[in-house]
Design goal:
Elements: H1 10-22, H2 28-39, H3 45-58, E1 61-65, E2 78-82, H4 84-101
Antiparallel strand pairs: 1-2
Helix pairs in contact: 1-2
Length: about 110
């Protein structure tokens, strides 16, 4: 986490982890479902796509359009994958959080 430009927000972090979990099936709808399943968080597709824009601008993801699919009314999917820079940033963020959480005891129920 070298500078503010590369800082990962909490939602960006969750989206990147969802992309990694979904592998080749990572696109807006599947990421939305993954976030609901994993962390019980309802998010709009607009929030996901605007996060894609930020992550792509930072170099943390790459996106591409799938082939046009008849079952989607002739529309393509915007498939995304995490770049090597995105992997590095996830690891740096995890390391930072591990340091911050070290020796913290949460004893409130």
């Amino acid at each position: 986490m070298a500078n503010k430009q590369s800082y990962l927000g909490e939602f960006e972090h969750c989206v990147l982890l969802s992309i990694l979990q979904l592998k080749d099936e990572a696109y807006g709808v599947t990421i939305r479902a993954q976030l609901k399943k994993a962390i019980d968080r309802d998010v709009s597709l607009g929030a996901i796509y605007s996060t894609f824009e930020r992550l792509e601008k930072k170099g943390f993801i790459q996106s591409r359009k799938s082939e046009v699919l008849p079952e989607r009314g002739g529309k393509s999917k915007r498939l995304v994958k995490v770049t090597s820079l995105g992997h590095k940033e996830l690891l740096a963020t995890k390391k930072c959080m591990d340091i911050m959480w070290k020796n913290i005891i949460c004893d409130q129920a």
